[in-house]
Amino acid sequence: MLAALGFATIAVLLLLTMTKRASVLVALILLPVLAALIGGFAGDLGELILDGLSKVAPTGIMIAFAVLYFSLMVDAGLFDPLIRGLLRVAQGDPLRITVATAVLTLCVALDGDGASTFLITVSALLPVYKRLGMNPLVLSGVVCLGAGVMNMVPWGGPTVRAMAALKLDSSEVFNPVLPAMGFGVVWVLVASYLLGRRERNRLAALSPRGPATDVREGEDERDDREPAASTTLTATTEGESSRHTTPATADGERQALRAPGDGPGTVRVPPLPRTWRTWLNIFNLLLTITLLVCLIQEVMPLPVLFVLGFAIALLVNHPTWEQQQALLDKHAKSVVLVTTMIFAAGVLTGILTGTKMIDEMAEALVSVVPDSFGSHLPVAVAVTGMPLSLVFTPDAYYFGVLPVLAETAQGFGTDPAEVARAAILGQMTTGFPLSPLTASTFILVGMSGVSLGEHQRFIFRWAFATTLVMTAGALLTGAFPL
User: Fold this and answer.
1) Residues 84, 217: contact at Cβ < 8 Å?
2) How far apart are CA 86 and CA 121, in angstroms?
3) 345/52 Cα distance (integer angstroms)
């Protein structure tokens, strides 16, 4: 019964969010609560929810201060040179921007941490997408594809779990699928090209001249809700009406509208002297590099690093109380939207784990595998891994499902390491940026400004295709047999 209740909860959750019948926040909280009541866990409900919230609390704290930190840096113009460089190279071409998004994501995601990958890439590239009027679903989708493939690295969560669960090392699990991962990287670049070409055609159909952007050296990015001093832009996204910015006509008006960045809720401050602004940009760059190095080296827990980093950046960039309060007020909405989703996901995972529904679901899944299918188990694991990311948490799959599957395969003469290799081709790798069971998914969709359902509908087939391409690559290179 618990297995059926768990599967039903996940199915209804996906149905409601993908069809927009209910907000993700409401569905993540009320559906598991209802399932717990039906399952007879009313007396333990408070403890289960609190346990789930406690487990995601560090992530929620990290995201709250990370969003504030990167929003401050965007407002301060830290990413302006990167944005201008991308726009200059792209020459207003959405296709080039989309491919550049994939390349940047593949590079940043080398650290194996999805949360930091999403924070960095979306913060840097969202202003570019706004500038060109591109669909933010393209941004979240391409970042999803790149981060999914790179999550296979030996220090990434899924591979570490697979090695720990089956007591294997990276030479047995990761090294044999490295060529398949290469296939996946190539596919991500191909997919980004196809998505970029489609976006270019969409924008060209909206405007006969296509999207155009005039980017001049030394200019600041502008909030798309305010007139720009020297740039006329048309930003159009699906489901939104066109917004046109017009040039200011007087020097005094330009001065009043100067903004340090193009982040959401840009704080309007008096223009800084050029020398001071240069030194401030250098300080922000050094602080951000130091923060990223500390993140990779795990000098301190991630929440602590972002708390300290934001406090230092806030004091230096906005030294007065009024400026600090204004920045917090402007970015409060972004913080609340992301963190509430993370804590809501904690309610879901806390109930599914605490009631043992997730364990029963794992056993039920394994029990339906026919004996005659044992010799083909690695292929089945590879193909089903990505969709099952929407159903199982990484711990539940790798520590609950995978060991049973590996033992079953071993009974048919299949090496358990082959099952582990197959699992990391999709389970919480290509699938994790779409799963409602991982907190980092809500960082991606929250910062991109898209809903979870829209994101899943837009990119699911592309992400699943990534797994299929890597599975074919693994078969061709002998990582596991057909």
Assistant:
1) yes
2) 13
3) 8
DSSP-assigned letters across all residues of 113-167: -HHHHHHHHHHHHHHHHHHHT--HHHHHHHHHHHHHHHTTSTTSHHHHHHHHHHT
| CA–CA separation, 128 and 262 (whole Å) | 9
Q: Exposed e or buried b for every residue in 237-255, given b needs 16+ CB within 10 A?
A: beeeeeeebeebeeeeebe
Asked if 467 and 461 count as a contact pair (C-beta separation under 8 A), the reply is no
Residue 418's Cβ-count burial label (10 Å; 0-12, 13-18, 19+) is buried
pTM of the model: 0.68
CA 416/CA 126 separation, integer angstroms = 42
On the 0-12 / 13-18 / 19+ scale of CB atoms within 10 A, 482 is: exposed
For residues 36 and 351, the answer to whether their CB atoms sit within 8 Å is: yes
pLDDT tens-digit map of 103-155: 889 888 876 778 778 888 898 888 889 888 999 999 999 999 999 999 998 87
pLDDT digits (tens, 9 = 90+) for 237-247: 333 333 333 33
**What three-state secondary structure class fits 279?**
helix
DSSP string of 403-452, one letter each residue: HHHHHHHHHTT--HHHHHHHHTTTTTTTSGGG-TTSHHHHHHHHHHT--H
Give all strands (DSSP E) within 260-310, no chain letters: none
